[in-house]
Amino acid sequence: MINSLVYVALGGAIGASGRYLTNVGAGRLFGTGFPYGTMIVNIVGSFAMGCLFLLLAQKGGTAKLGPFLMTGVLGGFTTFSAFSLDAVTLYERGAVMTATGYVLGSVVLSIFALFAGMSLMRWVLA
After folding, report:
1. Model pTM?
2. What is the tens place of the pLDDT at every residue in 13-38?
3. How far apart are CA 67 and CA 76, in angstroms?
């Protein structure tokens, strides 16, 4: 358990650093008027999650490398990759309505929660 936690933490540091550098690089390349960096990490992270998930499952490395690569590196890079994997897993299990509810609920409720948090802090700090 402790070893897995250390691997997740190390992977998370690598992923978060990659996300930061991607955001900085995208801002310099494309400007900061649109969140290109976030979009890039979400797309790249989801693609990498799909590749890693099947590769590690085929090679039997999910339990060994999964915590470091999938939870740590990709989780630090973008949690959108884990969200995407969860949604596709539900869909592939035949739970189409559950997957749809998960996607819509996660997106809508997360945006609502962000607005709620901002409203609370505006009230607290006023």
Report:
1. 0.78
2. 999 999 999 999 999 999 999 989 99
3. 12
Give the distance, in angstroms, between the CA of residue 121 and the centroid of all CA atoms in the same chain: 25
CB < 8 Å & 24+ apart, contacts of 70-74:
71/8, 71/11, 71/12, 72/7, 72/8, 72/9, 72/10, 72/11, 72/12, 72/14, 72/15, 73/11, 73/12, 73/14, 73/15, 73/18, 74/11, 74/15, 74/45, 74/48, 74/49
Residue 61 has pLDDT above 80, yes or no: no
Burial of 117 (0-12, 13-18, 19+ CB in 10 A): exposed
| Whether the predicted pLDDT of 1 surpasses 90 | no
Residues 98-109 pLDDT 10s? 999 999 999 999
Please state, in angstroms and rounded to a whole number, the distance separating the CA atoms of residues 125 and 117.
12
Q: Is 106 exposed, middle or buried (0-12, 13-18, 19+ CB in 10 A)?
A: middle
CA 27/CA 59 separation, integer angstroms: 38
